[in-house]
Amino acid sequence: MGKGGSQLSDSAQNSLVSNSDALTAIAQQQSANSQKLFNASFPGFGQAENFYQTLSTGDPYAIARATAPATQQIDLATAGAKQNIMNNAPAGGEKNLALEQADVNQGAQVGQTASSGYLNSFNALAQLAGQGVGQSTSSAGTAISGLSSANQGYNSVYQNATSGKGSQLGLLGGLAGSLSSGLATAF
User: Fold this and answer.
1) Which of 39, 109, 181, 187 has the smallest number of Cβ neighbours within 10 A?
2) Can you tell me the distance from the alpha carbon of 129 to that of 158, in angstroms, rounded to the nearest whole number?
């Protein structure tokens, strides 16, 4: 009598276990890599989130503090432009007008920096949240996929091992039944 169901050879079972072990190791490595990447990027993510949360408050003083580096650069550029006007423009009304325009442009740029910082902060916060959720989902999906594949391999080996035992027990049960019926008819 043959064995019931298809049986895998020992080498095939060993291969399945080896492949499943390798998939499990890869899933664990990817999980560790994911955690390392998260740990490396989280400080920057947190800093960006804090920056945009500060801007989103609408508090003029908080916005001024948050945009101070950009404002300082605008101030330096304006000072350089005004110095250039003072050194190179001929004296008169045009020179005074150019100096006034530099001040007006400076005010407009500083105001634009603050207002666009506030208005864009909400979209930036939404993007940060989406990126965090997306990265988390991707990492979890990779780990789940690897572990699922490994589990399928282990499950195949388990089913193969238990179906072989069931076939053996069925054969033994059949032989025992035949033996007992043979003995019953003999007596």
Assistant:
1) 187
2) 43
